[in-house]
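Ticket #4471: structure export looks truncated?
Reporter: QA, pipeline team
Priority: medium

Steps to reproduce: submit the single chain below to the structure queue and open the exported record.
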Amino acid sequence: MSKKKNPKASAPKKSTPSKSKRLFPSFIYNKAMICVLIMVVSFVLYGKTLGYGYTQDDAIVITDNMYTKDGVSGISGILGNDTFYGFFKKEGKQFLVEGGRYRPLTLVFFATGWEIFGEKEGAPLDKNPTSAKYFHFFTVLFYGLTGIVLYLLFIKMLRPSKGDNFAYFVSFVAAMLFITHPIHTEVVANIKGQDEIVALLGSLAAMYFSLKGYYEKNITFTILAGVAFFLALLAKENPITFLAVLPLTYFVFTKAQTKEIVMQTVPFLIAGVVFLIIRQSVLGGGFGSENMELMNNPFIKIENGKYIAYSGGEKMATIFYTLGQYVKLLLFPHPLTHDYYPYHVGTMTFGDWRVILSFLMYIGLGVYALMGILKKDIVAFGIAFYIITLSIVSNIVFPVGTNMAERFMFMPSVGFCLVIGVLAYRFAKYLSGTKKLDTSNFMMPLAFVGVAVLLFSYKTNDRNSAWESNYKLFSTDVEVSKNSAKLRNSMGGSTIEEATKLPETNPERNILLNEAVVHLNEAIRIHPNYKNAYLLLGNANQYLKKFDEAIQFYNKALQLDSEYSDAENNLTLAYRNGGKHHGEITRNIQKSIQYLEIAHQRDASDIETLRLLGIAYGMSGNGSKAVEYLEKALKLQPNNPSIMFNLGIALNQFGDAARGAQLMQKAKQIDPTMGQ
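Actual output as written to the record:
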């Protein structure tokens, strides 16, 4: 008599990872070993940045941010204001960057770090300060952690349905491509890039916890997912796109029903809503309005001295051109630059073949993604991930203030790396033909991936050398972004800084100053209304002792912005320094007095101007005026030996010799070098 089968024995088993023969060496399946490898590669590639100082946008979030440099006591200011408010220090100016920014998490980290590692007040920050070393260390550390979480997430996504071989191979390839890709250099080498890193790290961790909670039916991990996602949003707004990525992930990689997908998305949705409420309460709502200044809105042009908005066709053509450039840089990351401001990317039209090609490519990618998602195709998912996370920085949804930036590819590149990993595996299957897939079929795909990783690593190592200092960065990238007004301006300003570090007797000083003038003239050629370029041209000419030219440039800057305080202050200095120069060097006393009188009209309380006027009038023989101005100066600064001594000379020559002798004697008592 046959026995009845145990009903439990025939019940369907839970889906488990495939137990098929493993095709690769054991280390490929050793998650701990691969995680260590990812971290080691991160530090090997970016270890040199630990010796770099602060560059580029680090000033906005650290060195020139009043809240960050207040340390822990500045955290309340960070949490209660736009991210850039601590840099601009003026109400409303932070919104010069489209829409404002609320990214407090990394600034809180910087403020805490400054409390512990920051330099003392007044310490120089222009080389390699100790604080920068620590911040660079943590930037590389967070980058390595992002690569590790990416690797673990891909395994968690792929293994249940695709088995060990596929999951571990694709995850390893994708993680190595991600961690070595040169397009990430801007994010890792620039400390400010921590906002991009932490945003992606938190988003990937949130997805990992969500999937872990789903598979293990553990609500704790689901809650952790919501917390991680909220922290990611506090680092940068970009993770909001994961509200679309997460349900798509569940649809493609799990057997979750619609209700389950909704339940897993709820913690992300709650975190998103809470973040947006906080953001609105701080910034006042909205992601931005159109800014009609070229350096903050790339979709305008200058005609007859006025800003004119791009036509709809020009704007969309320019956007699609940049979207095509992103794909090109993912596949062939050369040349790289930190600056894609106008007019490195020019005004494009749909008559340009590159625009048409990019448009057709994205249409094709979009159609493939939509059709493939329904079939749960992983390549389609990777493309969808790329498009969804790119959308928020594409300039299509809302303006982001620049044409494009390599840092904007940090999050979308995850989708690209996943696609390449899957295609490498499929290539091996193709090579196997009708035969069973074995290790030998992976030799060619791995060779291609290995060459790509080596080339990426070489380029990354070479590229992050440019981030050693502002001058090195600008002088490197100006060879690529020759038609960027912003970079020409930055190069001019940085060259002036390098020049002023040299003594006036060094001939290299004037060579550098004249180089700066060339770059700044190029900036104005590209952007005729560039007020900061006119300011810097004024500065360069003032250092070159060309005071008439300097005054013209400062006045031009003030014509563009009558409230430009830097131009106002420097114009006053140009008149004062010009007056001194003509009095002491050219011996043109009348021109000296003319300049100094204007400087005095602009700032009646400036003691040095009063002193110089007294000397100039004395040299001209106008004793009463000489005494008048020196008396005013001494009244403002009674114990200044130089003013005292010069007033004594004037009195001695023009009427009151006794008091003059008394003042000169008193000046020598204060400073024995007087009169020598």
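Status: closed, not a bug. The export was complete when the record was re-opened. Leaving a note from the reviewer for reference: The first helix runs from residue 31 to 46.
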